[in-house]
Amino acid sequence: MSQLIMPQASGAVGSPLSLAIKNTSELDQAHAHILLFGETKSGKTTCATSIVEPSLIRVVSTQPEEQLAHLKKLGIDYVRVRTAREVDHVLDAPRQFFSGEWNTLVIDDYTELINFYETRFRNEIKDGRQVYKAIKDHARNSLEALLEGDYHLIVTALERSLEDDFKLPWIKPDLPPSTMSLITSKFSFIFYCLGSPNFKLRTRRDTSRRIFAGNRLPKDKVNAFSDEETSDLKQLWAKYQQAIR
């Protein structure tokens, strides 16, 4: 049972803090935080919209509208954003922007969203050394706020191949290191979309092909996911919920 602790006065100026002591047995992850990355046309958007019924999904798209044509029959509400200002207008308060009942927010794709921020800050900041710091801080603050939302958060990104110190390639999300550090620490799932012909998801690191991926399954339940799973987030979310019970 949670217990509220009211700290004693210590001479510090300001209102007293109210902090809740909880028990880990009460934990219940109600919402999924997922990054899907891969090549163009690897099924990222289709997979992202598979976690719940289409009527409960809202999409923030940085892509031309024809990129969503394959979702037409699903009837999903979406908004297309073209600039950093439009991105912030939606993501600063998605519950206010999108009406109706919904429980899943899809951002498609975050690689292009970061490019919007780069364009904005290059125009606003004369000192080039400060541009990437501004991008890092702004993207991090926005993403941290979204992670506190009462909805599933599904983010897509492109892939890129990087070489390590031994000149061996790693396939990773095409995102800045600062953004990836936040996603790695805060998101429960990072899945690699394998694309055609099977359109499966890589659920954990592939050391043979050197693909970055991972999940937060408990150590005693790591086999709840196969190394490669069908691109069905609803099914994977159910497996995860069962594993943590």
What is the general shape?
globular
Give start-end ranges of low-pLDDT stretches: none
Q: Superfamily at the CATH H level?
A: P-loop containing nucleotide triphosphate hydrolases
Structural class: alpha/beta
Radius of gyration, taken over Cα atoms and rounded to an integer in Å: 20 Å
Q: Strand content of the residues, in percent?
A: 15-25%
The CATH architecture name reads 3-Layer(aba) Sandwich
User: What are the secondary-structure elements, in order, as H or E?
Assistant: EEEHEEHHEHHEEHEEEEH
In short:
By secondary structure, the protein is of the alpha/beta class. Helix content is about 30%, strand content about 25%.
Describe it.
The chain is α/β, with parallel strands linked by helices. It has one domain: Rossmann fold (3-Layer(aba) Sandwich), CATH 3.40.50. 30% of the residues lie in helices and 23% in strands. The chain contains seven helices and twelve strands. It has helices at 44-48, 84-91, 94-97, 110-124, 128-147, 177-186, 233-243; strands spanning 3-5, 19-21, 33-38, 57-61, 77-80, 104-108, 152-163, 169-173, 189-193, 200-202, 214-215, 228-230. The strands form two sheets. Strands 3, 4, 5, 6, 7, 8, 9, 10, 11 and 12 form a ten-stranded mixed β-sheet that branches. α4 (110-124) packs across α5. The longest helix is centred in the middle third of the chain and has 20 residues, at 128-147. The chain is globular. The model has no long low-confidence stretch (mean pLDDT 87).
